[in-house]
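User: I'm new to structure prediction. If I give you an amino acid sequence, what do you actually give back? Let's try with this one:
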Amino acid sequence: METHNNNDLISVVVPVRNEEKYIESFIQSILKQDFPQKNMEVIFVDGLSTDGTLGTLKKYRDLYNFYIYNNQDKTVQHALNIGIKNARGGIIIRMDVHAEYSEDYVAKCVEYLKKTDAKNVGGPMIARGKTPIQNVIAAAYHSKFALGGGKFHDENFEGYADTVYLGAFRKETLLNLNLYDENLPRSEDDDLNFRIIESGGKIYVTPQIKSIYYPRSTYGDLFAQYYEYGFWKVAVIKKHHKPARISHLIPVSFVLFIFLFGFLAFFSGTIKIAYCSILCLYILLDAYFSFRNTKVNSIKDKLRLMWVHFILHFSYGLGFFMGIFEFFIKKAYLLKS
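Assistant: Good question. You get back a string of structure tokens that encode the predicted 3D arrangement of the chain. For your 337 residues, that looks like this:
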């Protein structure tokens, strides 16, 4: 794959689809960046939006260094690859419309990519909410009990990690890795970071790269999101023959325990006692971490946080189990048939 990059130009790649409510504020955050506008192009890759997203983008396209490409496949990984292939800059910065960025976000991405030996740099995922439930969900993102304590969930962590939020890369790095895997509708960033590390590269997180992520705002949307994460995580594990972290396997063990031992508890008093005891231990741990979480204050929100923890664990674990069935058991059965 040939590259014709302008090393003085930075390419920001932004997947969009039906972002009418958010696109205007995102564009304003781009225009407020303290990085020289003449040295920055912004590539929007639209997944066939049916609302006013394209109209807003076209309004700004002729005034600024904006480019719009169509994404017939509609998925994020296709959008990212389209943007990267068409980028003229030597550095690619991935940005998402559903986030807010500090005015030096682009500048800091470039600074840390140049001054570290990392192949991918980014900031922590700082989650915040605009509604009571979204605020509780955001609090879970900073709980070790909820998501296993990944380094990029720590707002103050600086150093090497196994992933970052969004990310900034040299275009050459992405091309050498054959871009994002288009067979992964979810977990495409996990897979890319996995390949960076396997190829000998490093990933660097710094709180100097600041942005705010707004998570799902309903329990149902959160469940669906983490079900998909768990499902497609299995595809990544199968591809690389190992998980990035052992903690990825804990939720599916939890789900298997609930169903298997819950069934066996009907036939054995000993198993029933053990089953109830372990569930009580889980509830106690859930309560302990929820009530110690300083991101929420009221008793009502701390109880909501307990429910969010369970949703995260159960949905991810259930999705993971179904992924095992889809990518291992079902495929093995079809190969034998």
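You can read the tokens as a compact description of the fold. Here is one thing that stands out. Residues 75 and 185 are 6 Å apart (CA to CA).
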